[in-house]
Amino acid sequence: MDWSLKYRPKRLDDLVGQDVNKEILKDLVAKDKLFNAMIFYGRSGCGKTTTARILVNELNAESVELDAASNNGVDDARNIKDMASKLALTGRKKIFIIDEAHMLSKSAWNALLKIIEEPNSKTHFIFCTTEYTAIPATIRGRSHMFKFYSIEPEVLKDYAGFVLHQEGIKLPEAVADLIIKESKGQVRDMLKLLQVAAEHNLNTVEKLEKFLALPDIRGMGSYLTGVLTHNSRLAVRVLKGLNTDLLEWRNRLEQLIYEILEDHYGIRPLTYSDSQNQKLRELVAQHPLEKFGKILDYLLKVNRAETAYQLLYVLAVLGVDNVN
Amino acid sequence: MLIKVKVEKEVERPLTELQKVALNFLPIEQVKKFADYPHLVEAELLNEAREPEMENVIRDLFDALHEKNPPKLLKVLQGDKRKIFYAYRKQLMSKDTLTEEEAKALLKIENKEVSLLSISLMKD
Predict the structure, then answer these.
(1) CA distances (Å), A39 to each of A36, A53, A119, A141, B54, in order?
(2) Cβ separation of A289 and B27 shorter than 8 Å?
(3) Domain ranges, ordered by start, for chain B
(4) What is the mean pLDDT of each run of 10 residues along chain B (124 residues)?
């Protein structure tokens, strides 16, 4: 079974992270008192819709879900308005979950406005969105917003440990760390990667990198060294040996440069092997910051697949001081 | 028989001092709910510092560039760097008055995308 489904939270207590939202919503549930209109806002995969559904369960409410990405017209909104104006026959709360709410049309919002301005005591709206500023000010002004933040790496790591324990599977810490890094603060993505790693026996960083087709950091370090020291032979050799999506490689290279600089200034330590970290730190110790800025500027030109190889080749051959 | 549906309007409550402080970093829609949960404001602000809204990112970015402070800049550039660059350029282009260094930056980025790191390293 898909772990992202198996471990999908069913109660507010099961939510990973989101502590502030969790505490307020738990309190509201305990008091059986929900705000009339709420905006659940945040990046995709942070648990907005899941939390809305949990609220329905915990309040034993009736729910109506609408995906505004495909039902964004005024008729859809009028349907909701009609449904909302009638009390649930059971006397239970009625919760309308409007997913991708920023996609609703202006006329749809206008149709909803009245019911949001004058809601009945049992009707509640939850607007889930990745762009709260796209929601009209008239609606925002009558709503309470809950921002769903990406999950912090240490919280994800604890949760990964819990899931692996439940599944009776062991993964090396370095593999778990890479999974957490690749998940970018999203529980769902982390669970998917964790399951892939467990089921395909990806028990080393190298195996996982290969499986995910992640660019080789060692090669990038060598390319950077070649570009910074005008060792064109080294840089070209790396480039010719690449068997990957070059735009993705360029993106990773840019990310690596920022990671090196962040490590240098003590913002966030590098997370590669000790020897790789050491080599990358030597680069920033030996070369002025301006050169890294120049490389970043140059990499911005590498934005089309058709010319990516040529432009990366030019940088390799000429070196950082002769481009821009 | 028609049943009259009870209308329930939420009472607008005046913001507490703490909520007013939070308004420097969070939109009002996000702040209102803390009326009964003042102990959670600090935690929310820490969350926001980790993942700030673009307008706050740009405000900090202007500070970092003005101070020519690469570490501060790198802290600001935690999100989508390309998105931050274009938001910065848009903001710069919409300003009525520019400092000399902002004018130089605008000249440099008017027609092309440049790394914000190199802007912070521009010589006077």
Answers:
(1) 10, 14, 16, 11, 18
(2) no
(3) 17-50, 54-120
(4) 61 86 93 94 94 90 90 89 91 91 88 85 70
